[in-house]
């Protein structure tokens, strides 16, 4: 299968490595020429895997036609990516893999068959050419405008022991459940600069996290008890991991707060004080980072 992967972050590198290992014809599209040249020269490696793999790597503005296009960029890059793919054949299957739900609004802009997914693996990017798998999990995919049977046929060539894929029936429910987990873990760990496990080990962060979970569940109409158990389970399993948002804040990068917590704030019909406060806190940290970067 001819597969195009957009995004040279941790998830894009993980997908590229695994799908290339399976024998697919993979092209990785990255934003920076520096990363492209490094990948061409040194190949792509997983920290615990002996040898690197070499795959076709291009810049995003060199996008070609593929059987499936997998978008692994962050939420704030989606609008630009949508503009880049509208010229592709309408038969191109498009798979979105993002944290949050800000990208959902773009589904109506595309006439291609759309799939959306969430990833439960722990993945850490070490460099432009190397990532590390820090936690076992699975990739969950759900049909949006593609037929379920077409999706089933497609993933037959994706699934193996190191890249486990499952199909979900309800794409909104799948994204909403992952959104609640991200709404709790990501901003709390980013604001307080702590690993994931702190939200269950620190009694004060635990209280904040429970309140965030409750507000998000009310907005998205999901059961609080079930979701809070899932949040605690994931925070415990990934207790030493640094969330992607915490990493972004540490490195003075734009976060995905607008597509995660911002989505809850936008959809809320009743006050969500904890969510609104932590949303503004992360935006304030971004603003300070922008100011420092300009100096």
UniProtKB/TrEMBL annotation:
InterPro entries xrefs: 6-PGluconate_DH-like_C_sf (IPR008927), 6PGD_dom2 (IPR013328), ApbA (IPR003710), Ketopantoate_reductase (IPR050838), KPA_reductase (IPR013752), KPR_N (IPR013332), NAD(P)-bd_dom_sf (IPR036291)
UniProt EC number: 1.1.1.169
Gene Ontology biological process: pantothenate biosynthetic process
Domain Ketopantoate reductase N-terminal: residue ranges: 3-143
Coiled coil: none
Database matches in Gene3D superfamilies: N-(1-d-carboxylethyl)-l-norvaline Dehydrogenase, domain 2 (1.10.1040.10), NAD(P)-binding Rossmann-like Domain (3.40.50.720)
Keyword entries, A-Z: NADP, Oxidoreductase, Pantothenate biosynthesis
Pathway: Cofactor biosynthesis; (R)-pantothenate biosynthesis; (R)-pantoate from 3-methyl-2-oxobutanoate: step 2/2
Domain Ketopantoate reductase C-terminal positions: 173-286
Any single GO CC term annotated in Swiss-Prot or TrEMBL for this entry: cytoplasm
Reactions catalysed according to its record: (R)-pantoate + NADP(+) = 2-dehydropantoate + NADPH + H(+)
Record keyword Zinc present: no
GO MF annotations, alphabetized: 2-dehydropantoate 2-reductase activity; NADP binding
Record has NADP as a keyword: yes
Family matches, as NCBIfam families: apbA_panE
Protein function: Catalyzes the NADPH-dependent reduction of ketopantoate into pantoic acid.
Similarity comment: family membership: Belongs to the ketopantoate reductase family.
Protein name according to UniProt: 2-dehydropantoate 2-reductase
């Amino acid at each position: 299968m001819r597969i195009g992967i957009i995004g040279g972050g941790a998830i894009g590198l993980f997908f590229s490595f695994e799908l290339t290992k399976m024998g697919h014809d993979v092209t990785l599209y990255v934003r920076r020429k520096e990363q492209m040249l490094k990948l061409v020269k040194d190949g792509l490696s997983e920290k615990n895997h002996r040898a690197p793999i070499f795959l076709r790597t291009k810049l995003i503005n060199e996008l070609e036609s593929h059987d499936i296009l997998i978008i692994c960029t962050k939420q704030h890059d989606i609008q630009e990516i949508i503009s880049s793919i509208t010229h592709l054949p309408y038969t191109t299957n498009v798979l979105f893999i993002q944290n949050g739900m800000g990208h959902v609004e773009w589904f109506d802009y595309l006439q291609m068959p759309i799939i959306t997914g969430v990833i439960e693996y722990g993945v850490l990017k070490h460099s432009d050419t190397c990532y590390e798998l820090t936690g076992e999990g699975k990739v969950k995919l759900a049909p949006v405008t593609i037929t379920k049977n077409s999706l089933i046929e497609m993933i037959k060539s994706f699934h193996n022991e190191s890249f486990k894929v499952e199909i979900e029936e309800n794409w909104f429910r799948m994204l909403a459940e992952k959104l609640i987990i991200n709404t709790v873990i990501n901003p709390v760990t980013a604001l307080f600069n702590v690993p994931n496990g702190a939200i269950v080990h620190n009694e004060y962060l635990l209280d904040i996290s429970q309140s965030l979970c409750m507000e998000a569940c009310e907005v998205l109409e999901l059961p609080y008890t079930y979701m809070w158990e899932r949040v605690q389970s994931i925070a415990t399993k990934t207790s030493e991991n640094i969330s992607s948002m915490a990493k972004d804040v540490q490195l003075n990068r734009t976060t995905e707060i607008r597509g995660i917590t911002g989505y809850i704030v936008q959809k809320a019909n009743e006050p969500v004080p904890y969510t609104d406060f932590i949303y503004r806190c992360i935006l304030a940290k971004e603003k300070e980072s922008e100011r420092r970067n300009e100096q």
